[in-house]
Structures are given as C-alpha cells and as structure tokens.
Amino acid sequence: MQNTKVCHTMDEGEVLNAAKTEYPLFSAVLYGDRVSTAKFSKRLSCAIKHLPLRVAFHYEYDTQKALDAGVRKDPTLVLDGEIFIEGLVAAEEITEAFEKRLKEENAE
C-alpha cells in the first residue's frame, strides 16, 4: 500500500512517488540497524518527496550482507548498487545529494 504521508518511516518494498510514472525510478537499499534505518527513512521521505523521482525502497539488516556490499557505517543508503549516503545525515544533505544525482541523470 502506498503511504501518502509526506514524512513517514518508509515500508519495506514501498515506492516513493509511485504514481508519478513519468519520473525516473531508482532502487534503494538502506543498510543498518532497525533504529537508525527507521530514522533515516523518515528523513529520506521528507527530503525527497517533492523531487521528480521515484525510489523503490528496501531494508537490509544483515551485517554480513552489508559488509559484502562495502558498507562500513550505519545507516548507509545504497542507490542503484552504489554507496550513496553514509551516516544519519540531515534531511537537507539528503535533498542535495538527490538533486545532484538528478542533474547528473539529466546531463547524460
């Protein structure tokens, strides 16, 4: 079920902005413990809901899988297979990182 609240802890398998099929779709995996990933996902939903993108969202709590993916800090957001944001950063930093990524996507 699509969560319509702007700022919310994202659900496993949720697609943020799912109805906006004209927006590019990114795949995100958030690695870390349950508390830090919940805090990060809420900041993420607040920070990027207004941007022209969709994000398919998944959690990964398994430490070995995180290490295998190159993750060294909790929480870490991996976007389309690449480490994208590390640590429990401010919403503004998340917004800036995604805005930069969108500009890069549009430049290609």
Give a structural overview.
The protein is built from three helices and five strands. The chain has about 110 residues and is of the alpha+beta class. The chain has a single domain, classed as Glutaredoxin (3-Layer(aba) Sandwich), CATH 3.40.30. The protein has a five-stranded mixed sheet with strand order 1-3-2-4-5. Helix 1 (about 35-50) links the parallel strand 2 (about 25-30) and strand 3 (about 55-60). Helix 1 crosses helix 3 (about 90-105).
Which features characterize this protein?
108 residues, alpha+beta, Glutaredoxin, five-stranded mixed beta sheet
The assembly state of the depicted protein chains is single chain
Query: Could you name the ranges where pLDDT drops below 50 across 5 or more consecutive residues?
Result: none
The residue-averaged pLDDT reads 92
Q: If you consult CATH, what is the topology? A: Glutaredoxin
Count of the separate structural domains: 1
Strand content: 15-25%
Broad CATH class: Alpha Beta
CATH architecture: 3-Layer(aba) Sandwich
- Strands of the widest sheet, in order across it, are 1-3-2-4-5
First-to-last CA distance? 33 Å
Distinct helical segment count: 3
Q: Which outline best applies? A: globular
Order of helices and strands: EEHEHEEH
Structure at a glance:
The chain is α+β, with helices and mostly antiparallel strands and 108 residues long.
Q: What's the topology here?
A:
Blueprint: E1 15-16, E2 25-31, H1 34-48, E3 54-60, H2 63-68, E4 76-79, E5 82-86, H3 91-107
Parallel strand pairs: 2-3
Antiparallel strand pairs: 1-3, 2-4, 4-5
Helix pairs in contact: 1-3
